[in-house]
Design a protein that fits this description.
The chain is α+β, with helices and mostly antiparallel strands and about 250 residues long. The chain contains 5 helices and 7 strands; from the N terminus they run E-E-H-E-E-E-E-H-H-H-H-E.
Length: about 250
């Protein structure tokens, strides 16, 4: 089994391979991570792992809170994640490659990264200024009938887009704008759909592409049926999620 140890960046969202992740980094533990990544030469990948938080807080408390107003805020790499941070995270995440790490005048960082490879979280180390993790890369198997499933998912996704656009008549992606490789389709649709974190996490850790596409097909049909009975909703952007505040 081949493993790798990388800095660990927990978020309240799921990162998929191929998707862009913008980050606003202001906590000291993650500033330290960015300073370490900047030591890597520009012609080499500046990698860290993103995992979705199962039980905890993306941003640690910085002031006394409730119910005890005298309680001191937590500090350090595990702040907000309890005494055993590994239990606070989902076990499948995604490696991110930071294409841009830009330091602001106040010492915070603007980061633009892209998901690359799924990984399984084996252990978490908290002895340094930021969390690191031992990770096992997960191969993406196609599964049975991935290609025809991808075609069906794309058809259903276009209907889903139209329902989301509603009366606003926003321009929709055409067939030429959408990929046809089953794995890419499965990740793009998983990221673009308006789903809660546990459902997105389920899609990320699907055993193979075909299984993910089957799940998405059911979700698309269900969500499209629900949207029919709701007021017009804004279409979501397909390749970027919201800025994560860390």
């Amino acid at each position: 089994m081949t493993t790798v140890r990388l800095p660990l960046f927990p978020l309240n969202s799921v990162l998929f391979p191929g998707l862009v992740l913008p980050l606003n980094v202001f906590e000291e533990r993650y500033r330290a991570m960015m300073r370490e990544l900047l030591k890597t030469p520009e012609d080499e990948p500046r990698r860290f792992a993103v995992v979705a938080i199962r039980d905890g807080h993306e941003v640690a408390s910085t002031a006394p809170g409730m119910p005890d107003p005298t309680a001191l805020p937590e500090r350090g790499p595990t702040a907000g994640f309890g005494t055993d941070p590994a239990k606070a995270f989902h076990k499948v995440g995604c490696i991110a490659d930071a294409a841009t790490i830009r330091e602001r005048t106040d010492g915070s960082y603007e980061v633009l990264a892209t998901g690359t490879t799924r990984v399984k979280l084996l252990s978490v180390e908290a002895s340094g200024p930021f969390l690191t993790a031992e990770l096992e890369p997960l191969e993406e198997e196609p599964g049975d009938e991935a290609a025809p499933l991808a075609e069906g998912v794309l058809r259903s996704f276009r209907q889903y887009q139209k329902r989301l656009a509603g009366a606003r008549e926003r321009s929709l992606a055409t067939g030429a704008d959408l990929p046809d490789e089953p794995g890419v389709v499965s990740y793009l649709v998983a990221a673009a759909m308006m789903l809660d974190t546990p459902t997105k996490q389920r899609l990320l850790q699907a055993p193979d592409t075909a299984s993910r596409l089957r799940d998405e097909l059911k979700l698309l049909r269900s969500e499209t049926a629900i949207i029919r009975s709701l007021p017009s909703l804004p279409a979501s952007e397909l390749t970027r999620g919201p800025m994560s505040l860390n």
